[in-house]
Amino acid sequence: MGATLKKYHRLSGLVIAAFMLLHITNHLFALGGPSLHITVMNFLRHIYLFPPVEIVLLTCVMFQIISGVTLVFRKGFSHQPFYIKLQVMSGLYLSFFMIIHVWAVLTARYHWNMETDFYFAAGVVNRFPEKLFFIPYYTLSIISTFVHIASAHYAKRVEQLKVFPYPMYEEIFRSKYRREAINICIAGFIITFLIMIAFSGVLYDIKS
Ligand code: HEM
Ligand code: HEM
């Protein structure tokens, strides 16, 4: 039962990760200015706002939160190794973030008929006092995504070691896997930094 839920969590995670690849790439285009970001978003919307795709994506978001929180309760926290603690903490932050973020985007777009483009996010990141909440809120969302994927990657690799026939080399492989996970996190920090300097008005003036 636990293994099945984990398998579906991974499968649904793959759908969200595919969307995140587009979403994060889109946000990196903000380095070239708001109009470039909006042009890329208008193109990508043909993919993720195509109704069957959007329904699958939003269903996966709901399933990911419910299955993730269930996995946390099953797993516990206090006696877990460090990488599992990171996985649980990043997962819990992602639950909090995805509920607010997706609800805000959908309500703004479908209920208030607002445009949910670059200025929808950059507006609150640049206005005082909203930015005191929204800068850490968005920063932690991308960092948590990468930390969650890095710890899942490390957990999977360590699991493979259980059937490894050369126990004397185990420590060498463990440190190799640790380096891979750390590199995923470093990539995440750099991407987060680039996106946040673009959205927070460090590179150009943002008038919302
Ligand atoms: C961006 C969305 C998410 C993605 C892409 C994602 C992806 C993954 C992946 C690939 C795994 C590894 C599964 C395996 O080893 O087979 C995993 C594990 C896990 N995830 Fe997520 N996840 C996401 C959101 C969440 C959320 C919102 C939570 C809620 C707390 C969560 C909690 C967990 C936990 C506790 C595990 C460890 C499962 C275990 O080893 O028993 N995840 N996640
Ligand atoms: C700096 C970080 C982020 C910013 C600035 C941001 C901004 C946005 C914006 C402006 C939209 C509206 C898109 C549109 O109208 O086409 C959106 C939608 C969305 N975002 Fe994010 N986002 C961020 C991070 C994330 C993360 C980390 C996740 C998931 C873990 C996520 C999941 C989603 C989803 C599921 C949608 C809804 C797509 C749909 O309408 O069906 N976002 N985001």
At the fourth level of CATH, the homologous superfamily is: Fumarate reductase/succinate dehydrogenase, transmembrane subunit
Output the helix-strand order. Answer: HHHHHHH
The counted number of beta strands is 0
Outline the low-pLDDT stretches. Answer: none
In this structure, how is the largest beta sheet organized? none
**How many angstroms does the end-to-end distance come to?**
49 Å
CATH hierarchy class name: Mainly Alpha
**Strand residues, percent:** under 5%
Ligands, ions, cofactors:
protoporphyrin IX containing FE
Instruction: Give me the CATH fold name.
Output: 3 helical TM bundles of succinate and fumarate reductases
Total domain modules: 1
Mean pLDDT: 95
CATH architecture: Up-down Bundle
Helix fraction? Answer: over 70%
| Structural class based on helices, strands and sheet pairing | mainly alpha
- Provide a count of the helices: 7
Radius of gyration: 19 Å
- Overall, the morphology is globular
Primary descriptors:
7 helices; 208 residues; single chain; 0% strand; mainly alpha; binds protoporphyrin IX containing FE; 3 helical TM bundles of succinate and fumarate reductases; globular
Walk me through this protein's architecture:
There is one protein chain. By secondary structure, the protein is mainly alpha-helical. The protein has a single domain (2-199), classed as Up-down Bundle (3 helical TM bundles of succinate and fumarate reductases). The chain is 81% helix and 0% strand. It is built from seven helices and no strands. The chain has helices at 2-28, 34-48, 51-75, 82-111, 118-126, 130-161, 170-199. Helix 3 runs antiparallel to helix 4 (82-111) and helix 6 (130-161) runs antiparallel to helix 7 (170-199). The protein is globular, with a radius of gyration of 19 Å. The mean pLDDT is 95. The protein binds protoporphyrin IX containing FE (2 copies). One protoporphyrin IX containing FE binds at residues 20, 23, 27, 41, 45, 48, 54, 57-58, 61, 94, 98, 101-102, 105, 109, 116, 120-121, 138, 141-142, 145, 195, 199. Keywords: Membrane, Transmembrane, Transmembrane helix. The chain crosses the membrane at residues 46-72, 92-112, 132-155, 181-204. This is Succinate dehydrogenase. It comes from Niastella caeni.
